[in-house]
């Protein structure tokens, strides 16, 4: 259904001679939550309603779009209206796809930079042939004629009338008159398909024509005059001039059309040389050689204008066009000073900064008549062609008016790009924090798609004055527009932003670059009303910032480091790691200004902000970080190295290990957020060779019930937990043994907002220089309730207990560290326990925490033993204290083996473990745990407790010891790490004194 281009509301610039062009594309409207994401473990498939699983009863996918604000329903859509639709399919395993993207973009992972080859995606991650055939059969049975599935297997095209689509998808259609007078149509119900195929479909795109896509450039500013040295003019009957740009030898400066215009390079505009020099990029006629960059466009581009720019700057860059859903010569000509300007900006910027690269213009139909499927087709072609290492797009629309079906389809396409090592950058928009303003008139906070997509690097805008070391930057926000930025309403928090953008959803932008048209980008464009030949102009917008970042990536990829270690690929994981490790070296922080363009938005500050992201590139440092060598994770049998005193690696309360390298943050970890914690090279831990780390995790200031999960960075987030709590305002601690990734980082994620502390007690290495573990039959060394290990039965208040360890409970004189299960019980008020070698300075890190009277809570600790054979336990507050020994480290014993965390037991799926009952759990043979292991490292959790009780873990076939591993009171959920001996049959027994559910997650083993 063809549409006309309609003028958009905007604010004219003081030097503008043309209004910024706002293009349109037909897209389905919906503010519903995304039905499928491949970036979080909680991603859902298609949201289906009605019918029963496994049946062929119709099930609805997603939700119906809402009538836009200010629109009026005008009646039913004509039955013969032609609709170009796509039925978009889910990858065969969305989580596996997400995991692979993380793996290939995380240094140290065995798959780092091992990208898929061209054409592999369909066979590895695309839907199966059976799935495609099943969906196609269902469409045919509904009276439709499905087209050939895309080469990556992700979409099936369908052309149908409104009547046919209504019958096939169980929805009506109605026309709406929008507040600007346009008439569009939308579906009245979410589309439905038979239940046996609905789960394989992420959405049906094209059932609504309500929406806009916008090119994010400013009005063009004409240069004030043209130099006779490079241009000649002759009068025409209409008063227009014709002009020729004389070819020049390459120079990163420009020809006299700009240098002789009366405007100043480095303040009124930035030549390629000035811009490259300011951002630390290289300038030469061959920079970028061997690389290809692709631009997304929905308009014709004037070839003469591109040629004029090349003549002006003295380049001979290869620029080609791939037409998608259109042909050469179709669409509006780029002759009115509006059409083709976006394309000229994108291409000219790249020509100037990476003249040695090849540029491919992927051109779809004019935005005025394009459909949402056309947009997806262009992106999909850019990815399936897999010709370009970098993809740049300066087009987008606000999230709130984009359909979830379209967003889902884009998400999978961009994930596909990441699997192939393609980097995707997108302009964040020019309407400040109110990205929907042009589409709906709303000034509410909103962000732009695809800049907000998790597998895309969103690029915001700055204004700049001066060049080189004297240059200054601030946020772009003036009468020409303002940089887009804010918090996504659709996408969950992403791991790579953990601790940097502490927001409840994906934050935008990621980075920024020059966008202000008052200090903008030189271009040539065609305006027949002014000249029969291309004319010079200055232009801005985040449309200029995006290809500038694309050029920075191209330069990195072309450098010797990336040539040796692999192209950058999906940028964001490495980008945020570079900010954590050495922020001032890699980024130019933008700290002033805001994006309150139409309403109060966000303010720039030191470090990351939702205005300019991490800032602008410092190319030299960034290239070193993005093109680092492929690290490898340490593996093999491991020995233990205790720390003499716990070292704090993370404390979100004061910014320790939280935020950027030079700019910490004190915000809590958000629900669903992730804290990447650097382990190697920190706190006395070696910079390499570490296989695992023993952490004491503490949550404090909790906002509700929740859990913490720990795992090796760059690997799949497991469905396990290491620490659990039951309500707000709690302080709870638990020990965790965590596998360390090749980049020396572990990830900590929480299901509800809380402050989080991580103290390291010791670490494992693949060398033989550490100590080895010997498991003991658990024995009680201390119980202040009954004078065990202490000559009193009164509660301990703000005092130190001296506990004899060597020579007790099976601990020999040669033991260097002891593994104790500490329990605080019958507490009074709040308090904590600290365990440390006797005679040593008491650490600032606690091991057991409680916040209320009557608490019973355990935690496993590994404590170095003092020369006198003792350890000290400090009690802050008032509590009884229990200490049970389960093993020790010495020069003899067994080594430690890491595993991927896995849930081995969850009685919630069967039946609770009854009071006084014992359950045998098979350990050997599960999660790659070999036969003959002597002990296993578990996180054991009790939940749904029916009364006060305790749990004891022991070797199957052996006698149950009198010691306990977990203690609780009714209604509590308690977790604790347990190093349990394993029986000769490869099993561990769990005994509970009262009825409860038991969960056991494995973290490693001793063999």
Q: Ranges with pLDDT <50 over ≥5 residues?
A: 1-54, 225-240
Output the radius of gyration. Answer: 31 Å
Report the major sheet. Answer: 8 strands, mixed
Count of helical regions: 16
- Determine the strand fraction and express it as a percent band: 25-35%
| Morphology | globular
Calculate the terminal CA-CA distance, rounded to whole Å.
69 Å
Helix content: 10-25%
Q: Which structural class is indicated by helix and strand composition? A: alpha+beta
Mean pLDDT: 89
Count of β-strands: 53
Keywords:
single chain; 1007 residues; alpha+beta; eight-stranded mixed sheet; six-stranded antiparallel sheet; 16 helices; 15% helix; globular
Topology record:
Blueprint: E1 25-26, E2 48-49, E3 58-61, E4 72-76, E5 82-89, H1 94-104, H2 121-124, H3 129-141, E6 155-161, H4 162-169, E7 173-177, E8 183-187, E9 192-194, H5 195-198, E10 201-205, E11 214-215, E12 221-222, H6 256-259, H7 272-278, E13 292-297, H8 303-313, E14 318-323, H9 341-353, E15 358-363, E16 370-371, H10 372-385, E17 390-393, E18 395-398, H11 404-419, E19 423-427, H12 437-440, E20 448-449, E21 457-465, E22 472-475, E23 477-478, E24 481-482, E25 486-487, E26 507-508, E27 511-514, E28 521-525, E29 535-539, H13 542-558, H14 560-565, H15 572-586, E30 587-588, E31 616-617, H16 619-626, E32 639-651, E33 674-678, E34 690-700, E35 706-712, E36 723-725, E37 732-739, E38 745-750, E39 755-765, E40 772-783, E41 796-804, E42 817-837, E43 848-850, E44 857-864, E45 870-890, E46 896-906, E47 917-922, E48 935-943, E49 949-955, E50 966-968, E51 974-981, E52 987-992, E53 997-1006
Parallel strand pairs: 1-16, 13-15, 13-17, 14-15, 17-19, 19-21, 21-27
Antiparallel strand pairs: 2-3, 3-9, 4-7, 5-6, 5-10, 7-8, 11-18, 12-29, 18-20, 21-22, 23-24, 25-26, 28-29, 30-31, 32-39, 33-38, 34-37, 34-39, 35-36, 35-38, 40-45, 41-45, 42-43, 42-44, 42-45, 46-53, 47-52, 48-51, 48-53, 49-50, 49-52
Helix pairs in contact: 1-11, 8-9, 9-13, 10-11, 13-16, 15-16
């Amino acid at each position: 259904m063809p549409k006309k281009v309609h003028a958009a509301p905007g604010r004219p610039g003081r030097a503008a001679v043309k209004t910024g062009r706002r293009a349109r594309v037909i897209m389905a409207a919906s503010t519903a939550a995304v039905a499928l994401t491949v970036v979080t473990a909680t991603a859902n498939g298609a949201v289906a309603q009605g019918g029963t699983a496994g049946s062929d009863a119709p099930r609805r996918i997603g939700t119906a779009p809402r009538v836009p604000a200010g629109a009026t329903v005008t009646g039913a859509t004509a039955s013969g209206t032609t609709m170009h639709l796509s039925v978009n399919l889910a990858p065969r395993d969305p989580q596996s796809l997400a995991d692979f993207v993380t793996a290939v973009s995380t240094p140290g992972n065995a798959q780092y930079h091992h990208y898929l080859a061209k054409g592999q995606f369909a066979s590895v991650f695309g839907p199966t042939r059976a799935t495609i055939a099943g969906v196609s059969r269902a469409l045919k049975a509904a009276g439709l004629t499905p087209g050939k599935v895309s080469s990556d297997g992700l979409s099936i095209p369908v052309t149908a009338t409104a009547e046919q689509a209504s019958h096939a998808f169980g929805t009506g259609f109605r026309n709406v008159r929008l507040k600007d007078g346009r008439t569009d149509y939308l579906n009245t119900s979410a589309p439905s398909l038979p239940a046996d195929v609905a789960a394989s479909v992420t959405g049906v795109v094209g059932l609504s024509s309500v929406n806009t896509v916008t090119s994010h450039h400013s009005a063009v500013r004409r240069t004030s005059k043209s130099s006779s040295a490079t241009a000649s003019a002759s009068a025409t009957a209409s008063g227009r001039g014709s002009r020729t740009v004389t070819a020049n030898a390459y120079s990163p400066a420009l020809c006299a059309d700009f240098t002789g215009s009366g405007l100043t390079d480095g303040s009124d505009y930035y030549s390629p040389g000035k811009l490259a020099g300011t951002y630390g990029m290289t300038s030469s006629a061959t920079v970028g050689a061997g690389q290809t960059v692709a631009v997304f466009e929905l308009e014709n581009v004037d070839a003469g204008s591109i040629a004029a720019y090349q003549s002006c700057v003295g380049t001979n860059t290869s620029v080609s066009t791939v037409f998608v859903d259109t042909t050469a010569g179709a669409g509006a000509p780029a002759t009115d000073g509006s059409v083709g300007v976006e394309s000229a900006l994108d291409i000219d910027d790249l020509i100037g900064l990476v003249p040695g690269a090849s540029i491919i213009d992927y051109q779809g139909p004019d935005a005025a008549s394009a459909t949402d499927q056309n947009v997806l087709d262009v992106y999909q072609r850019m990815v399936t062609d897999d010709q370009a290492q970098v993809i740049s797009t300066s087009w987008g629309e606000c999230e709130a008016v984009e359909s979830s079906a379209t967003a889902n389809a884009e998400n999978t396409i961009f994930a596909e790009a990441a699997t192939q090592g393609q980097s995707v950058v997108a302009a964040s928009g020019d309407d400040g924090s109110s990205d929907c303003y042009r589409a709906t008139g709303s000034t509410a906070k909103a962000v732009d798609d695809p800049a907000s997509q998790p597998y895309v690097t969103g690029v915001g805008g700055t204004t700049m004055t001066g060049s080189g070391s004297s240059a200054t930057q601030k946020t772009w926000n003036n009468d020409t527009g303002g940089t887009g930025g804010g918090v996504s309403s659709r996408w969950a928090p992403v791991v790579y932003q953990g601790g940097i953008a502490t927001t409840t959803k994906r934050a935008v932008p990621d980075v920024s670059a020059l966008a202000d048209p008052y200090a903008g980008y030189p271009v040539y464009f065609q305006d027949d009303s002014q000249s029969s030949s291309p004319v010079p102009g200055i232009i801005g917008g985040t449309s200029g910032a995006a290809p500038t970042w694309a050029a920075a990536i191209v330069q990195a990829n072309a450098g010797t480091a990336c040539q040796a270690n692999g192209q950058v690929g999906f940028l964001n994981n490495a980008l945020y790691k570079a900010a954590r490790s050495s922020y001032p070296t890699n980024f130019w922080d933008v700290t002033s200004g805001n994006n309150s363009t139409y309403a109060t938005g966000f303010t720039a500050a030191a470090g990351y902000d939702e205005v300019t992201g991490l800032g602008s590139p410092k190319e030299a440092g960034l290239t070193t970080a993005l093109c680092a060598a492929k690290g490898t994770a340490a593996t093999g049998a491991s020995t233990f190295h205790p720390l003499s005193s716990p070292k704090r690696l993370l404390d979100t309360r004061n910014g320790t290990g939280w935020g950027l390298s030079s700019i910490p943050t004190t915000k809590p970890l958000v629900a669903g957020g992730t804290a990447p914690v650097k382990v190697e090279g920190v706190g006395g831990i070696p910079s390499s060779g570490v296989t695992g780390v023993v952490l004491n995790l503490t949550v404090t200031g909790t906002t509700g019930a929740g859990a913490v999960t720990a795992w090796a960075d760059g690997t799949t987030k497991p469905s396990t937990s290491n620490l659990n709590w039951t309500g707000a305002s709690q302080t709870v601690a638990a020990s965790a043994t965590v596998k360390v990734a090749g980049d020396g980082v572990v990830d900590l994620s929480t299901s509800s907002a809380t402050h989080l502390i991580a103290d390291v007690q010791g670490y494992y290495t693949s060398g033989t220089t550490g100590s080895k573990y010997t498991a003991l039959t658990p024995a009680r060394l201390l119980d202040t309730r009954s004078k065990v290990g202490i000559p009193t039965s009164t509660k301990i208040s703000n005092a130190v207990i001296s506990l004899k360890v060597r020579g007790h409970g099976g601990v020999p004189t040669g033991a260097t560290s002891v593994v104790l299960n500490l329990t605080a019980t019958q507490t009074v008020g709040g308090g904590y326990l600290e365990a440390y070698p006797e005679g040593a300075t008491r650490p600032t890190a606690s091991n057991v925490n409680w916040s209320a009277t009557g608490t019973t809570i355990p935690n496993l600790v590994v404590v170095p033993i003092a020369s006198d054979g003792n350890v000290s336990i400090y009690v802050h507050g008032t509590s009884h204290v229990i200490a049970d020994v389960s093993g020790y480290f010495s020069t003899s014993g067994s080594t430690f083996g890491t595993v991927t965390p896995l849930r081995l037991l969850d009685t919630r799926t069967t039946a609770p473990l009854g009071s006084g009952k014992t359950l045998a759990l098979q350990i050997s043979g599960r999660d790659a745990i070999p036969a003959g292991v002597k002990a296993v490292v578990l996180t054991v959790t009790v939940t749904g407790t029916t009364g006060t009780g305790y749990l004891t873990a022991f070797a199957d076939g052996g006698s149950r010891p009198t010691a306990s591993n977990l203690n609780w009171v009714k209604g509590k959920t308690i977790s604790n790490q347990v190093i349990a001996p394993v029986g000769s049959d490869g099993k561990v027994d769990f005994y509970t004194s009262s009825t409860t559910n038991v969960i056991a997650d494995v973290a490693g083993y001793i063999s």
